[in-house]
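User: Please predict the structure of the protein below. I'd like the answer in structure-token form so I can feed it into my own downstream comparison script.

Assistant: Understood. Taking the following sequence of 258 residues as input:
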Amino acid sequence: MIRALPLLLLVASVGPDAAAAPLDAPAMQALLGRFDEKMKSAGDFTARAYIETKEKDKPDVAYDAVYYRHDADDRFLILFLAPKAEAGKGYLRIDQNLWMYDPTVGKWERRTERERIGGTGSQRGDFDPDSYANDFTHTYVAEEKLGRFTVHHLKLVAKAGVEVASPTLHVWFDAESENLLKVQEHALSDRLMRTVYYPKWEKIPDPRSGRDVYYAKEIRIFDEVEKENRSTIAVRSVDLADLPANMFTKAWLESKSR
């Protein structure tokens, strides 16, 4: 089980305090660009994740999943291994479309970016982040404090024609590490839908590019509509080894779901 900790304590585990200064438009674009870049592998990305979900009037459920990315062309695949009721279910993103495969009926269905992945409170973007620099316009809100951290608070609005889970985001970046600490997701009506915290970040050297690839080792998701509902994603392991060329296909996922 994932141990619950106060959110301010979780945020405080990321790094030391720092002084910040307001960012102009070029500086904001550069910050978002650097963040997008350090999240991407020059080749493939594999991660094993444990997901714990709590919902009102339901027993807690723990999921085991493995997800894969090919960042060069934005391909993404996640396969559930447990619990038994979800084992074999998978999601595949290719050509900007997100597909869900249910092995119990042998059927594929197209899904939107905002839909929940499996029975969890997560979305595709929690495992395969959007491009903040390219997909959103940005406004500087304020230099603020989050716990004991000085942060840059930005408002991001999705550009026309870009399919994302939430059209408006409020994001908080640690001024020193430039790691993302918190996101609030808003609907078109401006209603707050989810709050997501990123208390733990890690990095792994990429042998292809010679630089480090960053990933959120822990993600805590709070449903702001159904207040009792929340999910925690804990990434157990990450591997940047090459993946089979045919992996990001419906046929490959179907073969693993049998």
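That's the full token string. The chain has five helices and 13 strands.
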